[in-house]
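Batch job 17 of 40 flagged for manual review because the log was empty.
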Amino acid sequence: MKGVILAGGSGSRLHPLTKVTNKHLLPVYNKPMIYYPLYTLINAGLKDILIVSGPGHAGHFLNLLGSGKEFGVHLTYEIQEEAGGIAQALGLASDFADEGNIAVILGDNIFEDNFVQEIKGFADRGAMVFLKEVSDPERFGVATVEQDKIVKIMEKPKEPETNYAVTGLYLYDHEVFNAIKTLKPSARGELEITDVNNYYISRDLMKYSLVKGAWTDAGTFDSLLRANNQVAKNKNY
């Protein structure tokens, strides 16, 4: 299995911090933000990793991470020319995946857990998402679980049916790229990863795992502060 880190977008919710740099290069305690998803993939045993970023600061990622030799992995880079959504960014990984399975992580997601068992045990067909019970599910995609199966995922619902947030880690077979081709832009003009996940749900090909340790994104001022505090208090990262 190969890994993909999605680190594009304008980071508008973190202006003015992101007016001169990419969100995923901002510090979270003692490391650049992108180190955390990178180590999540590395600690799960992945050695071949693609980083998808926007055109404005792509060179900064290369300067920071290089070939990946420092981390014991091989890094490849791809440019998302415009902010067309997470699913559009993932679509750029089709050639890189080379018809194999992929683990996809959002560049602002910080996990305490190690996912080596889930990734090693991932079946050749289907998808898996990782759920975490949160107090503010309306900020995320929210999964409705019935009889130990996800029956639907709603994107940022005003009245969530559950507290199960879909975190920014996903496992997919190669069918994901066909799924992306079927998508239409959402109301905000983007291809949504929630629509990709519902594609698998509709075909009864979606599994899930619960995140046991701490998790947060870092895409807003409040969550960036939470991420810093989370890492500062726990040296397992």
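Reviewer: the log was empty due to a logging misconfiguration, but the result itself is present. The CA atoms of residues 12 and 147 lie 39 Å apart. Unflagging and moving on to job 18.
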